[in-house]
Amino acid sequence: MKSYTIKEHTADLCVEFYGNSQNDLFQSTGSALFDILYEAQHISLKVEFAVTAEGFDTEDLLIAWLRELLYIGEVNNILLCEFIIDELSETKLKARVRGEPYNPEKHSIRREIKAATYHDLKITEEDGKWKAVVVFDL
Amino acid sequence: MKIRKLDNNHWIIDKEKEMKVPGIVFASEKMLQNIQDDRSLEQLANVACLPGIVKNAIAMPDVHQGYGFPIGGVAAFDISNGIISPGGVGYDINCGCRLMRTGLELSEVRHRMDELGMALYSSIPTGVGSHGDIRLTEKEERKVAVEGARWAVKNGFGTEDDLEHTEDEGRIEGADPSKLSERALERGKNQLGTLGSGNHFIEVGYVEKIYEKKAADAFGLQEGKVTVLIHSGSRGFGYQICDDFLHSFAAQSHKLGMALPDRQLSCARIDSQEGKDYLAAMACGANYAWANRQILMHLVRNTIMNFFPEKTKELQMRLVYDIAHNIAKIETHTVNGKKMKLCVHRKGATRAFPAGHILVPPAYRAVGHPVIIPGDMGRSSYILTGTERAMDESFGSCCHGAGRVLSRSAAIKKARGRRIDQEMEKKGIFVHSHARNTLAEEMPEAYKDIDDVIDVVQSAGLANRVARLKPLVVIKG
Description:
The complex is a heterodimer.
Chain A: E1 4-7, E2 13-19, H1 22-37, E3 38-40, E4 47-54, H2 58-76, E5 78-88, E6 92-101, E7 107-109, E8 115-116, E9 122-126, E10 129-137
Antiparallel strand pairs in A: 1-2, 2-10, 3-7, 4-6, 5-6, 8-10, 9-10
Helix pairs in contact in A: 1-2
Chain B: E1 3-7, E2 10-13, E3 23-26, H1 29-35, H2 40-47, E4 57-64, E5 71-78, E6 83-84, E7 96-105, H3 106-109, H4 113-123, H5 138-147, H6 149-154, H7 160-164, H8 182-188, E8 201-210, H9 213-219, E9 225-232, H10 235-255, E10 268-269, H11 273-307, H12 312-315, E11 318-324, E12 326-335, E13 338-347, E14 349-351, E15 370-373, E16 381-386, H13 388-394, E17 397-399, H14 408-414, H15 420-426, E18 430-432, H16 438-441, H17 450-459, E19 463-476
Helix pairs in contact in B: 4-11, 5-11, 8-10, 10-11
């Protein structure tokens, strides 16, 4: 199952993410995020970071998760490709994320994302299929 | 939601439902058709619902859909009962534009523009995640946050003359680094003096036409002389500040059960501790951006000096002006005959204060400060001056650029199979960029025609043309 679709938006990036469960949705937003940021044939598992996130509802939790991933990626100059979610509720998350440092010989940058916004933010679940819509500021 | 015509350049969305004030759109009939293709007007109506908003929610002629506030939006709030909205400033706090003039004659240097482009591209840190040569300690970073462009001048990146020609002398008072998160400080420590990516740019161009001689003379602009535009902001430092406060305001709004038309419009009362904390942190972001543009200009000056060693006397590289276009300012305005202290949010909009205004630098007080409006990379940019009518109708504001018409994905589709760099070169414009899709996303067809936007600005009486610039070299991140 594909993990994301880019939708039309005039100046920014509107993305639909998909998953077969809440856990799967959160994992796929992670891998989709780094596919949106970078073009990379293969990302090795050389470094690991622990992530905790909290939100006042599941949508806020999703934004908190994306904020953590964007921050780890930028400050450490890292591409992440593995997202192991150890604990997940509607408002809390604990995970381990893995990847490798950015290497211009192997990876190319597609775009910069400034932030994940709350605009049009929505998570829906229908017949076990989860979908999240997030608009990112470019 | 109904929009009706007031005259050829003014449209109104009447107050309805939760709107507290009407929405005013500055646009021609033709431009309005484009504007109605996306959700800008719905976003404008949402802004009009926010507490304490005064007079009108305003859309400039370059308006397009944003995330919460429309881009090209202006909204002013009474400081005694109104709100401050981080989304109404934007993640890129004090993204803005500066114009530098030179004494170089286009006719003498045009044949070397491609080479100059390559020299700038290799000497200015550009692109996603770029780090410059400046590595700030936390102590120095806090000084940058408080002192703004003055920090840059004190550390050898410019002159007092530069500060005298920068909006608010490149510094907002009341910046408080204790309101910043560790993450903001972490992100800001290595990014000072970097251009960034996306629609940020450095553009070498020239003055193609002078419309108004008195103001042009005051600005030092002459036909045929080479100019440099720099468009950049507060980098990851600013993005993190906005993100931190939006997250906190959203949680607070949720806790209080505040009904908001869009969660991205999460806000706090200006007179609350949270509101004051955001303004103090926003000021840090704004000051960082002014320091950033000051340093970028210094790097450009150095590159040009080294490139033209035989022309040292002619170079005369002077800052004309630096203007913010993502910011909130505390200003005094007259509304229905009464002086009011307001928090004016300009999201993709600039100040346009007229002759005589106390906040116009002394060098320009006889004519008004320069209003810098860059077009897309293939077309003109304009320099204008503000008017009393702008003070009356838009809280002394004007648009900030051409405004997008195509989404990035639509632009990439349209550019498939094309070499945008070669198309630009055929027009005599040399472009350089790091990221693969940037040139496609930023191609001229992705933007409104700047001439149409400026026509409306002029006809609506918001600002008057002073000069038109044309691009020669464009450096994109």
